[in-house]
């Protein structure tokens, strides 16, 4: 599926020579991520952009089958590509579970059980408080240190040219520099229903849509990969956007 940007208003632009590849809400679908890496590599080999940046908009873990391998792929990618990794609400929730094991059963409702199983750790229902602490301790021991470091070092936003990249969105009427992290990671209706300009063109995920939406003020590239098998890749160069 190809989706191009709207034509009616002044188009946001990247600096000359910069090409951005953006992906959001991988949710443990490592096999789909590998496919998108192959697409990016082929495009770079063909077009040879002056400066390529790969921007990942968060929610790397939970729900899908292989969060562990997804993090391995992203970390490996960071060693040989110019990458930016943003924080999603799932990463924020997971790191809070590491600090407060009593939240582990709530995390399971968000797809955390699949993440835990990808590290070879299983859980029975109805855990006591002590069992919750033991389980989180077992998970932390099973995780490579570089995975924990990766999740703790994620940034909330990234700006390039006229584009603002974030996991969930922004609160309308608030300057981008003054946004609360809780909104950047969790906001939905107030942002999605707004027709206002936000100071920059916002590229986000978080709320699944049937196909990528490239609107006048924002682009939503979360196409529910774990449920649909469709992981969207957004190409941006100059004032052109293309989602596949």
Automatic annotation (TrEMBL):
Residues 19-210 form the Calcineurin-like phosphoesterase domain. GO terms for cellular component: cytoplasm. CDD domains: MPP_PPP_family. Signal peptide: none annotated. InterPro entries: Ap4A_hydrolase, Calcineurin-like_PHP, Metallo-depent_PP-like. One of its GO terms (biological process) is RNA decapping. GO terms for molecular function: bis(5'-nucleosyl)-tetraphosphatase (symmetrical) activity; phosphatase activity. PANTHER family: METALLOPHOSPHOESTERASE, ZINC-DEPENDENT ENDOPOLYPHOSPHATASE. This is Metallophosphoesterase. It comes from Bradyrhizobium centrolobii. The lineage of its organism: Bacteria, Pseudomonadati, Pseudomonadota, Alphaproteobacteria, Hyphomicrobiales.
